[in-house]
Amino acid sequence: MTTYKDYYKILGVERTATEQEIKSAYRKLARQYHPDLKTGSEKEAAEEKFKEINEAYEVLSDPEKRAKYDRLGANWQHGQEWQPPPDMDGFHFYTWNDGDLGATGFSDFFETLFGRARANRTGGGFRWEPQMRGQDIESELQLTLEESYRGGEKTIQLTSREICAVCQGSGHLDRGICAYCGGTGNTTVRKTLEVKIPPGIQNGSKIRLRNQGGEGLGGGQRGDLYLKVNIQPHPLFTLKGNDIESKVIITPEQAALGDKVTTATLDGDIILTIPPQTHSGKKLRLRGKGWPLKGGGRGDHYVEVVIDLPAFLSEAELDLYKKLAELRKGV
Ligand SMILES: [Zn+2]
Q: What DSSP string runs through 190-219?
């Protein structure tokens, strides 16, 4: 939560004050509270006041900033709790993580309104240097089911647009257009990154790589890179929530009499017991053989039974099926 600053009150001028009035009020106060002229306990108080005066002047001496500030309305009280209004068309407000706020010497209120800035004293005045955090970038990370299950390190390559190091993004040098970036101010850079994949990562979850996003402005921090996990389809296994599903094909005799068959799991082949008189579509549960759970443990693996005939049946086999068919008629 930020608190509203009454910049007019700080400079002791009316809301209708002219540029000249604002300037002379600022000069008078800046002289009065200049920390260099104070000593001891007075110095600290003066420093705070001096900062406040400079911030007020930064806003009210700049027509654009003053107009934006004025649009917040005249009914706010200095020190009142304040949040960016959601319904102010055409205005962008800046949001920062709590820990980032106030890092520049300006107040939270100021940074929410005008963004991150660095105040540089140059020749008696302040130079406005916008400083903004770079954009967050989202990209896809293709993983096989096995990679997602086991986790580990994966090397990925990606291209990113970087501010041209030769012309600092301006696109031109003293001699003319910057040949390095072709005047665009940007260059495309190939990056190789090591990504740590936690075991059992879910499809669609995002891995955050701090400071690998877009470049910041004016020395601002880089944005973050988010890699959205896309688990590729697997020929044998389907991931459904925390469970794995697969199929096992058995013959009619195995279904009728029961058997032991080999089937694949995430941990390799196992022997699966088919109980006698198993129907097609039955799902056999392998407890704890599924996907790793967040709090430890694992989901289950369901093996669906599919009954199919062998590719070829011999005469003798067909004779037996005929006998079975006769028997069925008599039941
Ligand atoms: Zn360039």
A: EEEEEEEE-TTPPTT-EEEETT-SSPPBTT
Question: How far, in Å, is the centroid of ligand 1 from the Cα of 174?
Answer: 12
Examine the domain organization and report whether 126 and 224 are in the same domain. no
**Does 178 appear as a known binding residue?**
yes
162 or 239: which leads in pLDDT: 239
pLDDT tens for residues 274-320? 999 999 999 999 999 999 998 889 999 999 999 999 999 999 999 99
Strand partners, 119: 128
What phi and psi values does residue 35 have, to the nearest 5 degrees? -60, -25
Measured in Å, residue 213 CA sits from the centre of ligand 1 at: 20
Helices (H), the chain: 7-11, 19-33, 41-60, 63-70, 108-114, 145-150, 252-257, 315-330
CATH number at residue 317: 2.60.260.20
- Spatial distance between the Cα atoms of 23 and 11, rounded to a whole number of angstroms: 9
Q: Which of 178, 197, 194 is nearest to 186 (CA)?
A: 178
- Give the residue from 99, 130, 161 where a domain finishes: 130
* Span from the CA of 118 to the centroid of ligand 1 (angstroms): 24
Tell whether 94 and 162 lie within a shared domain. Answer: no
Q: Supply the range of the domain harboring residue 263.
A: 238-330
Distance of CA 195 to CAs 147, 154, 227, Å? 12, 5, 9
pLDDT band at 104; cut points 50, 70, 90: low
- List, for residues 202-249, the tens digit of each pLDDT value: 999 999 998 888 877 666 788 889 999 999 999 999 999 999 999 999
For CA atoms 152, 158, 162, 166, give the dihedral sign.
positive
